From TrEMBL:
Cellular compartments annotated: Membrane
Keyword Coiled coil applies: yes
Transmembrane regions listed in the UniProt entry: 20-44
Membrane-topology descriptor: Single-pass membrane protein
Gene Ontology CC terms, in alphabetical order: proton-transporting ATP synthase complex
Family recorded in the similarity comment: Belongs to the ATPase B chain family.
Source superkingdom: Eukaryota
Protein purpose: F(1)F(0) ATP synthase produces ATP from ADP in the presence of a proton or sodium gradient. F-type ATPases consist of two structural domains, F(1) containing the extramembraneous catalytic core and F(0) containing the membrane proton channel, linked together by a central stalk and a peripheral stalk. During catalysis, ATP synthesis in the catalytic domain of F(1) is coupled via a rotary mechanism of the central stalk subunits to proton translocation.
Organism: Ruppia sinensis
Keywords from the UniProt entry: ATP synthesis, CF(0), Chloroplast, Coiled coil, Hydrogen ion transport, Ion transport, Membrane, Plastid, Thylakoid, Transmembrane, Transmembrane helix, Transport
GO MF term set: proton transmembrane transporter activity
Taxon lineage: Eukaryota, Viridiplantae, Streptophyta, Embryophyta, Tracheophyta
The protein, known as: ATP synthase CF0 subunit I
Main location: membrane
Coiled coil spans: 58-92
Length: 178
């Protein structure tokens, strides 16, 4: 152990203008060699570690990019499908609207035709009623006129003869029915 400490102490007191030579103390040279190797490993190992970290980051980025591309393709596929369905709904919607429009026009035409028929029937009914009223008024006027004529021309003798004739007709009708 004394040799190891002596070698450290002797490292600190090397002559600056001395000669170059080999150090035959194995323990001292091993420590120096180990520290040089460790320094070189640490210096160059950092680069390797950084390279590995950079490579793993790049690989992760590539995997994320592939995943994003797959998701993008799925989204595009879904978008195309939704656009197709929207077009179908739009076309079907327009067709349905046109069908409903035609149905509504036809129903309106049928309703108007039915209203026209009701109007014509009502007019015919009112016409017939007016004609019947006019006929009834004419019949009543004719009957009143005939009664007036009969009352003015009818005397009691003619009246008795008419009654007797009607009773005779009723008697004949009674015999026929029995």
């Amino acid at each position: 152990m004394k040799n190891v400490t002596d070698s450290f102490v002797s490292l600190g007191h090397w002559p600056s203008a001395g000669s170059f030579g080999f150090n035959t103390d194995i323990l001292a040279t091993n420590l120096i060699n180990l520290s040089v190797v460790l320094g070189v490993l640490i210096f160059f190992g950092k680069g390797v570690y950084r390279k590995q970290r950079i490579l793993s980051t790049i690989q992760n980025s590539e995997e994320l990019r592939r995943g994003a591309i797959e998701q993008l393709e799925k989204a595009r596929t879904r978008l195309r499908k939704v656009e197709t369905e929207a077009d179908e709904y739009r076309v079907n919607g327009y067709s349905e609207i046109e069908r409903e429009k035609v149905n509504l026009i036809n129903a309106t035409f049928d309703s108007l035709e039915q209203l026209e028929n009701y109007k014509n029937e009502t007019l015919r009914f009112e016409q017939q009623r007016a004609i019947n009223q006019v006929r009834q008024q004419i019949f009543q006027q004719a009957l009143q006129g005939a009664l007036g004529i009969l009352n003015s021309r009818l005397n009691s003798k003619l009246h008795l003869r008419t009654i007797s004739a009607n009773i005779g007709i009723l008697g004949v009708m009674e015999e026929i029915t029995n």
